[in-house]
Amino acid sequence: xxxxxxxxxxxxxxxxxxxxxxxxxxxxxxxxVDGAIHRRGGPAVLDECRALRASRYGKGxxxxxxxxxxAGELDARWVIxxxxxxxxxxxxxxxxLASCYRESLRxxxxxxxxxxxxxxxxxxxxxxxxxxxxxxxVEAVRSTRTAVEEVRFVLFDDRxxxxxxxxxx
Length: 169
Description:
- Helix content is 39%, strand content 20%.
- It has a six-stranded mixed β-sheet, sandwiched between helices.
- It is of the alpha/beta class.
- The longest helix has 18 residues.
- It starts with a strand and ends with a helix.
- It has a single domain, classed as Leucine Aminopeptidase, subunit E, domain 1 (3-Layer(aba) Sandwich).
- Pfam families: Macro (PF01661).
- It comes from Streptomyces echinatus.
- This is O-acetyl-ADP-ribose deacetylase (Regulator of RNase III).
């Protein structure tokens, strides 16, 4: 049984086996969580991302998929990079968002990670409404069979924390 916990704060300050990065498809860093993880993780994270681009993901990591690298200087063993969908009012992309969580847990399981820290994927520059994103994230984690013992949602502000707290119950 996976325990879901909520923390308000900075995901780059978390101690966990794996920290999930809300990455862009390039895997080369960016803004928000992605940029913060790359900055705090240091050059080892970017080096492994570049190697992934050169070997398996020449066109970038597809939306809804996940891949792991070292965590570099972060207080974790791995960073699991996942690419969330950009929110659209005209197209339901909920399944892609749920896939980010399921695929990240699959990768975590393959690595042997027992604790995984997630941000609220797609809720920053990808504009996914926080209430809906929280519902999708919690449902995806609860419905995924995994050996991960703790899923920790690390939420940046009160609004996100409250939205996830309503879903977790």
